[in-house]
Amino acid sequence: MKKLMFIVNPNAGKGGYRASLGEVLHTLYGGGYLPEVHFTAGHGDAKRLAAACPADCKLLICMGGDGTLSEVAEGLAQLDSPPELGYIPMGTANDVATCLDLSRSPVEAAETIITGRSLPYDLGSFNGEHCFTYVAAFGAFTDVSYRTPQQNKQALGHFAYVLEGMTRLPNLPTTAAIVEHDGGVIEGDFIFGGVSNTTSLGGMLRLDDDLVDLGDGRLELLLVRAPHSIADLQTVLSEFVAKDYDGTQIKILHTTRARFRFPEPIAWTRDGEDGGAHREVKIKALHRAVSIRVK
After folding, report:
1. Is 0.85 topped by the overall pTM?
2. Within this chain, do residues 69 and 194 fall inside the same structural domain, yes or no?
């Protein structure tokens, strides 16, 4: 039997692990793995457990939401030779699962881990202290996921994010920023800015697959300029609908690094969690830092 570390977040996805954990473990055992199960009890546990993964363990699976996956990936990035990563999505938004086309059925996701292929996957370094798996961002709606009450998430699922976001529409924040990237510098006022490695953001923005390469050593820089008139707002909407990502209001660029500077501390989110407030943020791509099992 092959050794396997299995990290479970019992609070993710309305606690749905209870209905499926036994069958998932049976599936993994039938695939030749001997799972060693660890439950998280709070923030940072998944990262700590992943960073302590023994060298003879060649596969680590996490069962939880995007935040759990983010912690696990950050822990694995500390290892010289990290094991392959399997993901059983149990969260609310599940952006990474959408991007990777992973099943929402825990048993089917476990079967994919056993029979699937290994996909090299870039992470992002955030100020040299933390990592993110799919997005680090500031501006409109970026704090919706971690400010939405947990009871609302559990009761309403993804619709809870939509309801929370709707309350922000009358007061979209505008942020002045200087943004450096591989190709130059962009300066202005923005309602959204960030760096990502995904085709799905917040369950509401879907980028075409040919625009994103998850293992090319580059991240996607996303910027939405603040509309200062009705015409600007119409342009934002038209560029969004037309997927015009090189327009006057919306920009998406590929870059290996990015540096954001602000006149005052600005709140960030990393993979849907509170990323703190910063006057300067430096991001760089960590080329193929982990390998994820996919179909």
Report:
1. yes
2. no
